[in-house]
């Protein structure tokens, strides 16, 4: 069994700040090359539900860790994103460790294989699409990354990605320059609705701690989860261009 330890909000703030302003170098990350142009049939299978995938993505949930409110709808999410893409998961790996000596936090990278760009544009200088999540995986194995690789999800998802080469919304005025290491990676625009997959009955956002919750103000997650089919959500985002 693999689970991600939820980090306290204070630690997540530290991680965000360090990632933006004083990142620590890690090993080289290689991934499948980007593909800005949709291949014929690239979005085929979007509406296929893979029951085993939810467990993989739910490991990246971080309850009570949102630093800012999520975008209020899909259009706002797309505006906040560098690119919204349809992609498959190609790999998972440790990217780096960040934070001050007393609060070191490992970063886990989900390596994507893009099949279509729905909105915006992926960074042309990056040959890899690696989405970082802060957290430590705990497994009944000395090699947590190997355990995660053994359960890579199948099929395709829609990802709202933000390049980490610019300051995040939570950065303070006067923050230091973005370190070169951060420029290699993307993050989701929000942990609450930053990616979507096809669920058993409708679209779901499995990385969101409140996935399925409908109460409260409108958010991009709630807007996305109203669609019955992931292909319908993709069509909606594609029409934003």
TrEMBL record:
Stretches the record annotates as Disordered: 29-49
Keywords tagged on the record: Signal
PROSITE patterns per UniProt: PROKAR_LIPOPROTEIN
Signal sequence, start to end: 1-20
Name assigned to this protein: Uncharacterized protein
